[in-house]
Amino acid sequence: MEQHSAEFLANADEALAGRERAQLREAMGLFAPALHSAAANAYGDFDALREHLHAVRRHTLDHLDVYLDRYLEAATENGNSVHFAETPDEMNRTVEAICRQHGARRIIKGKSMVTEESALNDHLTGAGFAVRETDLGEYIIQEAGETPSHIVGPALHKTKDEIRELFLARHDLGERSLESAGEMVGEARQVLREEFLGGEVGIIGANALVAETGYSLLVTNEGNGDLCANLPPVLIVCTTLERLLPRMSDAADLLRLLARSATGQPVTCYTSFYSGPRRPGDADGPVETHIVLLDNRRTEILASDYSDMLQCIRCGACLNHCPIYVAAGGHAYGWVYPGPVGSVLTPLLTSLEESHLLPNACTACGRCAEVCPANIPLPDLLRDLRQEEREQALSPVGWRRGLAFHARLLRHPWLYHRLTGLAARMLALAARGRGVLSRVPFAAGFLSERDLPAPTGASFMARYRGPHGDER
Amino acid sequence: MSDEARDRILARVRAASRRAAESEVDAALAALGRGPAPRPLHGDPRVTLLARLLRNQAAVDAVTDRTAAVRAIGEFLGARHGSRKLVAGQDPRLAALPWRDAGLLPRFGEVEPGDLAAVSYARLAIGETGSVVLTSGRDNPGRNNLLPEDHIVLVNGEDVVAGLDDLWPALQARLGAEQRPRSLQLISGPSSTADIALEMVFGAHGPRALQVVLVARDAPDCLAAARSLPG
Which chain B residues contact residue A189 at CB under 8 A? Predict the structure, then answer.
């Protein structure tokens, strides 16, 4: 996918100006955390489950050589062809080659963030194939020519009216009211039914790969991914190495965390395990199945200090709980993965140079780490990336000098107290008894929408030490 | 191209892994124990199953025998479509049902576009999540779960397991340890979406309605208990 992470600040400004969409995000920012905490509380010991799966997945990553070998053996035994792709482009070409081999033209797709990473749709469309996204959210943004704004609900940035207008313009179905969400869903169902029945190749992602059995796991509420996996004669699963889990029982634990963290449900409506092509005597199912494993720098992340990021299960909880994501929206981040997960993944999967603003899009509130089902220390990883940003001199020189000055100050408490005491007295003077300040040098941005309470004249330390301290 | 990519990726994975012996890896995994299961809604997994299905907008019936089962299906179909037709897979348990007692006319085979209803016999069900479990095969084509307007699933009381982690062992016990059906589907309600402005709508791409019929001697008691659970 084309990257616009360098324009984060301008993108965020634009998003903040759009009132209706901001209200949608605010509703989500209230609604989703409430559902999440209700589901976690009803579970019992949800935190122990998080810790358990974290330990299992750490173990899996530490021994990925063993589990990958086991998975490859089981998946091959199940009748799959397994392909490896180092780069997104290589994955796209692999998928294209499979489609060509079958003389297929119509491709139906379930939701897959990995194929967003590689911009598979653009590639296949450019090569002459007809690609149809079938997840309702993905379908909406495909018709609108947009990119996902959320990893679970890709079209949640669009208002109901916008979707209504889009459907009226894109579906040639004559006069109709199309007022309710129910009517719109019904219309998409009708339109996409034809696509499902005519699909020659199905493409889906995977929520997990099970080394023990070679099954891939797929969760959806709509059933669209399952139609893609069951109806066309050829199935391609596009996924990545870090989805691996050792056993079926680990997949059970993953499911327990995933649905509750994503939508607050105890389980999604459809939870499916697919092993391979149809078995002898089977009445239906694909006759040929392919699994494409994309690396795209994940093996580099595995060997780095950021390997915990490979534990991400793509639930979107960190987005729903992030004040920056809720304020600025997913498109501001300018690539596939927004929010805290995106602010770590984007620099790792693309380049820090292109996306160094993202790790700064953080208030350090820590909510993402509190709710992450995979127990990823997101604020720590963001801090480490900011550190790298500074070391590589990517941040503006003013920021770096300011930080260097601040660091020096903190290392010299005496100087710190002197200067802060001086600043407090000057601010008190500047307030001229009004109690608040609306303009302060170097803080124009901070004070554009708020006032600064004026200091009373003496710092806490000065008062603490009393009239005989070194401050007065 | 692909083989080289494979070799390079595998080499990087090996370099980043601990290169431990398989037995050591298995022992380390076993030492991690099991994760805690969720607090059950009820001590009887069949009650939990029905309660979860009700919360997820499924239609639920509880019957004591096969005649009552086909009658419940007949009532559901009559109310939904005013129809007596439905499609059933080649599951012998379905073939053995007294369909005529309810005046129903099943066609055995695969669902075709336009078919209003299909009926399946669940291999298992899971109380914890309120799911019926269907395996693909001649007895239950995968598309029968997905293409019809409405999906009807029968499940026997003795096939209801408590938790998600019971799924695989119970399935292996029924199918044989070496069997890996093409698909295992856990279905927990009619298809749904909240992709339009977070509004919950049932009837997305899969069936618009799901009817689950629990067959057990004390099934009506289970349903009464499920209905009386708070929430």
Answer: 203-205
> Within a 13 Å sphere around the CA of B50, how many CA atoms are in the beta-carbon half?
28
State the pTM of this model.
0.94
Containing H/E element for A39? helix A19-43
Nearest beta carbon to residue B168 from set A93, A156, A249:
A249
Distance CA A367, CA A221 (A): 27
pLDDT one digit per residue (tens) for chain A, 472 residues: 889 999 999 999 999 999 999 999 999 999 999 999 999 999 999 999 999 999 999 999 999 999 999 999 999 999 999 999 999 999 999 999 999 999 999 999 999 999 999 999 999 999 999 999 999 999 999 999 999 999 999 999 999 999 999 999 999 999 999 999 999 999 999 999 999 999 999 999 999 999 999 999 999 999 999 999 999 999 999 999 999 999 999 999 999 999 999 999 999 999 999 999 999 999 999 999 999 999 999 999 999 999 999 999 999 999 999 999 999 999 999 999 999 999 999 999 999 999 999 999 999 999 999 999 999 999 999 999 999 999 999 998 998 899 899 999 999 999 998 898 888 888 888 888 888 888 888 888 888 888 988 887 677 877 788 766 544 3
**Sequence-ordered list of residues with C-beta below 8 angstroms from that of A411, at least 6 positions apart, any chain:** none
Pairing of strands A288-294, A81-85: parallel
Type and span of the H or E element at A15: helix A8-17
Q: Write the DSSP assignment of A376-398 as a string of letters.
A: --HHHHHHHHHHHHHHTT-S-HH
CB count in 10 Å sphere of residue A173: 12
Cβ–Cβ contact B109 with A under 8 A: yes
Picking from A20, A66, A98 by the largest number of B CB atoms within 10 A of its own CB, the best residue to mutate is A66
Test A279 with B109 for CB contact under 8 angstroms: no
